[in-house]
Amino acid sequence: FDGMTIVELAKRTGESISALQDILVNVGETVDSEFDPLGIDIAELIAMEIGVNVKRLHSNVGAELLPRAPVVTVMGHVDHGKTSLLDALRQTSLAAKEAGGITQHIGAFVVRMPSGASITFLDTPGHAAFSAMRARGAAVTDIVVLVVAADDGVMPQTLEAMSHAKAANVPIVVAINKCDKPAANPERVKLQLASEGLLLEEMGGDVQVVQVSATQRIGLNDLEEALLLQSELMELKARIDGPAQAYVVEARIDKGRGPFATAIVKAGTLICGQHVVVGAEWGRIRAIRDMVGKLTEKARPAMPVEIEGLRGLPMAGDDVIVVESEERARMLSAGRKKKLEKDRLQKVGEERMEIANPSE
Ligand code: GTP
Ligand code: MG
């Protein structure tokens, strides 16, 4: 919708030009001519008013794209060692050492490799967050680490994680964990995974498998190397300059600091002081903190940061967009809230219909 004129918007949506102009007036916007391009925020507002679903497509045409770090999510069956593995990986992080081993929990962390490359890990507990984010169109994760306990083998949630990754078209790197246990049987795990359709590298496919022990801290470097290799194959790149496009990984409210969110920038640069709309909330970024809690002015792609200054609590998977003014931020937030409420009422209505017609 970006750059579209009223005339084009009318054509695309089947609404009359005058109806669209009325909406424009209602949202307090003036456009000199119906042939003037509308900004993307205005286009979104109009679309919401007429009940059209919009998705912001961020164009990187003409922008310089630079390599960026991969964003990795760890998934797997209950008790297979996801948290232990993340803890162990977190301790390999240079920043963790710099901060004297004390890292605050911000829902994500970065591991810097000796080569200078880095990997961003999301701390979010598994499937729920991943699905929620995917359902909301937030493709934050580039690679899934599928943790399978070497003694327990493939279990229901292992398969669930596999299908989540597949549906999201996100490549998997398998970490067979608990390899220190006497009952560990990595070969059996590999056969199980293969029989579930995972094309493992050593069997001629392209899914890497690494054997690790989170608690004994074995194989962590191998895992990190495998992730880097996978990310190199994917040639992950991002636009660095220009307005940020980011996603919320988790959000909380703190008595002193108010609502704050951990966000990962996908493209562009997020700058302190900017007005943002986050999901249906808005705010002006008062502070940006890096993963060790240090204040910073800017956040670049693949960098997890905590942002303060939001007026309400956003949800995991919400998009963060930068807008030009507080007025615009308020307007978009109000529009999105209205749309959410409309969708909710419609859903309630549909459920009532289903109850009224149980056979359908
Ligand atoms: P949920 O969050 O409950 O799904 O579990 P999780 O996947 O996060 O597993 P968690 O890291 O909590 O580990 C479960 C148990 O396995 C704990 O008692 C860990 O100490 C143990 N464990 C994790 N990794 C290893 C390992 O590499 N070797 C051994 N021997 N035990 C491990
Ligand atoms: Mg856990």
Automatic annotation (TrEMBL):
Protein biosynthesis is among the record's keywords: yes
Keyword Nucleotide-binding: yes
Start and end residues of each Tr-type G domain: 67-237
Subcellular location: Mitochondrion
Annotated GO CC locations: mitochondrion
GO molecular function term, any single one: GTP binding
Record keywords, A-Z: GTP-binding, Initiation factor, Mitochondrion, Nucleotide-binding, Protein biosynthesis, Transit peptide
Coiled coil regions in record: none
Protein family: Belongs to the TRAFAC class translation factor GTPase superfamily. Classic translation factor GTPase family. IF-2 subfamily.
Primary role: One of the essential components for the initiation of protein synthesis. Protects formylmethionyl-tRNA from spontaneous hydrolysis and promotes its binding to the 30S ribosomal subunits. Also involved in the hydrolysis of GTP during the formation of the 70S ribosomal complex.
Name of the featured protein: Translation initiation factor IF-2, mitochondrial
